[in-house]
Amino acid sequence: MTEMPEPMQIPTNPSNSLATALRQRRENLAGSIDMPVILWSGKRKERNAGSPFPFRASSHFLYFAGLPLEDAAIRLEGGKLELYMDDPNPKGILWHGEMPSRDQIARAIGADAAFPKQELQERSPLESTATIPLQDRAVVWEQNQILNRERPTELDRDLAKAIAAIRLCHDDAALAELLQAAACTVQAHYAGMVSTRNANTEAMVRGAMEGVIIANNMQCAYNSIVTVRGEVLHNDIHHHPLKSGDLLLADVGAETQSGWAADVTRTWPVSGKLSPTQREIYNLVLAAQKTCIAKVRAGVEYRDIHLLACRTIAEGLVALGILRGNPEDLVEMDAHALFFPHGVGHLLGLDVHDMEDLGDIAGYEESRVRSDRFGLCFLRLDRPLRPRMLVTIEPGFYQVPAILNDRANREKYQEVVNWDLLAKFADVRGIRIEDDVLVTEAGSEVLTAALPKEPNDIEQLLG
């Protein structure tokens, strides 16, 4: 098990590596925009009195503040940071123990000043301050009260663009966290595969995987997908029994205490052995993934990597006889999307779908818009790759009844799909293979390469 730092560890030296990294980030922001910025962390929501939901600070706040502070705000201007939060309530010591003071936290993150939260409004010029809209309605109401506005302004949109540009490529501090998340996620998937030998339900495998994440003092980066219903892309229901002949698709990722995420998918046979039809489709998806990873490097268009996955899958399905025709033509008419309807991956960072709360500002190069084509409309990233970007590569094959049984699809693709042969692959409901790939100057580095994905290696691990 990897060694992980304790949560909310507060360094006493303001020159610590966290403060240094945060100082560089806010200097980068100051070089992009000339305006004061306020970012809120968010507030804890309660299930009922005394029983709160787990707290997760806003990712934009985390990027510049570094610590998951609750009900706090930071004000950034000219490369300087002011922290606004209240000192812990002394009465809370009984329930939560000693908590760091505002000044201790300010020193840890290299803040230039720290004030009680109530002083934020009087210290902030309203007309020229920008912020990022959050999903938390209570925080949105509070920030709108302080800034005297009802909806995002042009300043807010300029800020969103500036933050997206900075966060696209990860600094050393971010990469160190991302590597920890990736290592923990690899361990979790190993545990999941091994646990399948004695598991009766999806939930038992999920428990083994998430147990590793918790034991490493991390949390899940998203709702775990551990399912024999792999054709349901974001299936977070775990009550199904495991039966011989099933494929188990596990999409599980760890998130560090500072919020940095991993995102990995593997698919394996419950019985420990792939059937002939399962192996053929598995090898097809694996070939698409490996071909795409080999093309990842700075300057390459991510959209081209997606289309490469589409062509590789179309070629494989033609070779198997499931599709008929020229692979290029099949991709042009989106026939491949009957079985591979989503994009080949996405940005990864402080969120598993990093910065998608900003819409397509981060994912799409300026002036580009999403296609309305069946085979392109779910593409989350459409821009040239740059060094230090972290992306996922995750092609898949799915038999989604709502797609394959749709009357319009049946009519449109009647001549290019061998429906009778497809029926022989009924034991392949969904296969996805996903890794986290760092773009480097020379090419790429797969942060999750330690996790097996060759079918023979997986079968050997399953025993």
Can you put this structure into words, describing what you see?
The strands form 6 sheets. Strands 6-5-4-1-7 form a 5-stranded mixed sheet. The chain has a 3-stranded antiparallel sheet with strand order 9-10-12. Helix 9 runs antiparallel to helix 10. The protein has 2 domains: 151 residues, 3-Layer(aba) Sandwich (Creatine Amidinohydrolase, Chain A, domain 1); 291 residues, Creatinase/methionine aminopeptidase superfamily (Creatine Amidinohydrolase). It is globular and about 70 Å long. A hairpin with a 2-residue loop joins strand 4 and strand 5. The N terminus is likely disordered. The protein has 15 helices and 17 strands. It is an alpha+beta fold.
Which homologous superfamily in CATH is the superfamily of the largest domain?
A: Creatinase/methionine aminopeptidase superfamily
The largest sheet has its strands arranged as 6-5-4-1-7
Average pLDDT, to the nearest integer? 91
Biggest sheet: strands, sense, closure?
5 strands, mixed
Brief rundown of the structure:
The chain is of the alpha+beta class and 463 residues long. Helix content is 35%, strand content 13%.
